[in-house]
Prior knowledge:
Blueprint: H1 3-41, H2 44-75, H3 79-115, H4 126-146, H5 149-179, H6 184-216, H7 225-232
Helix pairs in contact: 1-2, 1-3, 1-4, 2-3, 3-6, 4-5, 4-6, 5-6, 5-7
Amino acid sequence: MTDKHLSTQFDSELNQVTARVMELGGLVEAQIRQAVQALSHFSLDAADQVEALERRVNAMEVEIDHELTTIIARRQPTARDLRLLMAFSKATANLERMGDEAARMARMVRSIIDSGAVRTLPSSELHIAAELASGLLRKALDAFARLDTKTALAILKEDNLIDQEFDGFVRKLITYMMEDPRTISASLDLLFLAKAIERIGDHSKNVAELIIYLVEGKDVRHTTMQEIESVVQ
Length: 233
């Protein structure tokens, strides 16, 4: 078998696994969209959809990991190609964890509905953060498909907005619980829901960092925004 044929087969396998990762991203995006719907309308139907998608997301993560392991074992890729395959693996893990957070959102919505406290809690303030997190994932998937470091950098900056929304909401929720201790139990559900939204943003940020690593060959985790900008520019 010629080297050219081997290379063509490897490229085909890479394209297939890329398509699978993007398909997983689409499932997770749908899952988060349903979680936001569940939060916005306190919809049990939307919460059920999130949990149904969770099973598909988990199964697909296992399948992609198996495909990646098989490619590595069969092709013994060079350092550059191995970096790409490892990035796929890490992106897949981050996507699956976003799905976990969406499922957590659905469970918290269900708990709030069961508590009967839907109308008394300040849940509307979470909608902005939830929409930001959903949009961040959408941008991360698009940037990953195009290996767009400029968009990846913008994602890292935008994640700070979600963090700010989360911090502000926590302060307001604490005040709310102090004023009306009867809502503490349901308010804690809302707090965990807010944390799930914030974690979705964090995982989108991780995907953005992977894009920069793939393109620039520089690991920008745990570095300052100024250092990251110097790498991308």
